[in-house]
Amino acid sequence: MGTWDTGPFDNDTAADFANALDDAEPEAREALIRGVVIRTIDATGCLTEAEEAVAAAALIAAQCPGGEPVDMSCGPETPMPVFPSDLRALADEALARIAGDEDGLASNWIDPEDWKQWRAILTRLRAVLVPPPPSIALFDVQPQRSVTRHES
User: Fold this and answer.
1) Maximum distance among all alpha carbons in the chain?
2) 38 vs 114: CA distance, rounded Å
3) pLDDT tens digits for 104-150?
4) 3-class DSSP state for residue 22?
5) Would the pTM of this model clear 0.85, i.e. be above it?
6) Closest CA to 6 of 66, 56, 37, 51
7) How far apart, in whole angstroms, are the C-alpha atoms of residue 136 and residue 21?
8) What is the mean pLDDT of residues 68-77?
9) Residue of 42, 48, 36 lying closest to 1 (CA atoms)
10) 95: which residues sit within 8 A by CB, 6+ positions away?
């Protein structure tokens, strides 16, 4: 793996994924992102698409409130479609799998400071991706009036 920094697109595999997104037709970009995220969630054994899934999660998070824009010098140059809200939870789940895989990407960092920085990026992405709790209209509750019965 050629890695030059800790950002989501700062490795050869993620850069290739960005190129694939640029080369894809606009309507196919969401499917590419959804596919890599779902395959990462469903993977057994080695998470072979972890770098791509981190990059995909960064693109999804960039569209969320509080999300940071993706560095266009390493990420895709073409605009991404507006992603459906269900991708947020899927991307978060994929990142949870990646963060918990001690034999995967986490083991690739030689410098402990780089590892900490990379983990911080995953934590920030996950914080943005967690969907807000659904707003439920509260009922307008009125105090009960006591009912007095008159016996005759």
Assistant:
1) 92
2) 27
3) 776 777 787 888 888 899 999 999 998 767 666 555 555 555 555 55
4) helix
5) no
6) 51
7) 37
8) 86
9) 48
10) 53, 54, 57, 122, 125, 126, 129
